[in-house]
Amino acid sequence: MANDRLRWNNKYLQEAYKLPRKPSALLAKNKSRLLKQSGKRALDLACGSGRNSLFLARLGFKVDAIDISDTGLRQLVQCARQENLKIRAIAMNLQQVILPRARYDVILNFNFLQRSLFAQIENALAPNGLLFFESFTERHMILQDKKMNPAYLLNNHELKSAFPTLEILCYRETDCAEKSKGARASLIACKKQTTS
Ligand SMILES: C[S@@+](CC[C@H](N)C(=O)[O-])C[C@H]1O[C@@H](n2cnc3c(N)ncnc32)[C@H](O)[C@@H]1O
């Protein structure tokens, strides 16, 4: 795991990974949905240098942004300070996280896969909370024509049933010949309010 931290720290020193970076298209397209969300507490899992955390914070969210790379997080903190945004950067290995129950109105998980977090993500959403999840599928390895660790790739159709207690609002799996995009599965899902 220390290796993961060093590997990602090195990436965030490269120009292509430095801020400013555009937020994910899935988030940008759902700006009006996010603005309508009544609660404003958000969590960005494996946020990197925080392009998506910044997007949410600029919409008025108070964001907890977690990543193992302190180099990525440092960029995020600097940018958040300049704009006076409410972002708490947390340097942490997500293998060891215990997420609080029913805390977040929005949870983001982009380009990162840790299956052991699935149940915790469901529990950490507040009633009516939204989950935005997008990551690479096993088709990505074929499109990229290179060997990748299958533990970090979603199986085809896996994401659709990964969060059984949430209501799916949008789901798609896409293949894109463009190398930087590849094959991904995307989900927006909502935690229904329980009536008792
Ligand atoms: C492909 S980047 C995605 C960054 C961001 N979500 C985005 O879409 O721009 C994957 C991120 O996962 C982080 N990461 C990898 N393993 C991790 C772990 N065990 N705990 C926390 N973060 C981790 C890396 O540091 C890196 O920032």
State the CATH class. Alpha Beta
Helix content: 25-40%
> What is the arithmetic mean of pLDDT?
93
At the fourth CATH level, what is the homologous superfamily? Vaccinia Virus protein VP39
Secondary-structure element string: HHHEHEHEEHEHEE
Number of helices: 7
Write down the overall geometry.
globular
Widest β-sheet, arrangement of strands: 3-2-1-4-5-7-6
Distance N terminus to C terminus? 43 Å
Radius of gyration: 16 Å
Structural classification: alpha/beta
- Low-confidence stretches are none
The number of distinct β-strands equals 7
The small-molecule ligands in this entry are: S-adenosylmethionine
Count of spatially separate domains: 1
Note the quaternary state here: single chain
* Main beta-sheet annotation: 7 strands, mixed
Secondary structure topology:
Blueprint: H1 2-11, H2 25-29, H3 31-36, E1 41-45, H4 51-58, E2 62-67, H5 70-83, E3 87-91, E4 104-110, H6 118-124, E5 125-136, H7 138-144, E6 166-176, E7 182-191
Parallel strand pairs: 1-2, 1-4, 2-3, 4-5
Antiparallel strand pairs: 5-7, 6-7
The chain binds S-adenosylmethionine (SAM).
Q: Would you give an account of this structure?
A:
It is a single chain. The protein has one domain: Rossmann fold (3-Layer(aba) Sandwich). The model has no long low-confidence stretch (mean pLDDT 93). It has seven helices and seven strands. Helix 6 links the parallel strand 4 and strand 5. The protein has helices at 2-11, 25-29, 31-36, 51-58, 70-83, 118-124, 138-144; strands at residues 41-45, 62-67, 87-91, 104-110, 125-136, 166-176, 182-191. The protein has a seven-stranded mixed β-sheet. The chain is globular. With 196 residues, it is an alpha/beta fold.
